[in-house]
Amino acid sequence: MSSSFSLPELCSYIAGERIPCLSPLNLSDESKDGFVSNANTGEALQQRKSASLDEAERALACAKECFETGAWMDLGTEGRAAAMERIALELEPQVALMAWCDAVTTGVSINLTSKMCGLVPLLFRMSAKYILDGNMDKKEEGDSMELYRDNNPIISMRRFRKSFFQFH
Q: Global pTM?
């Protein structure tokens, strides 16, 4: 598969900041070589990396703060839907790159990955419509969930509706 694309730099977005992933991915499977490879040729394309545990905890803390301060809810229905639409608009020009990255690293045909990746902006638009239709205006209490690090809870959440969580 020839293309002018290359894999983008691995990064995290935390609190509006783009942070390069610098931590080599800790692989438990010794047969892995630590690289993302072209599934068709075996060529190493990029070293596998991940966010650090501290970065993951910072991302969780930012999400908790956003929830607790009401920043997302304070946008109102129209503001939240507009945010989802902006994400869709930013993703649309990236669909071909996403499809190429998926195809080259998995071996799945570009025809199929193009169709699947083409759905991504549509899902954000569907989420915007879901919000505008008032489906996120009510809270229905559900199960609790805790996230742990080294057997210690780092964050507790109570689920509302099917998959929306409230930190507590």
A: 0.70
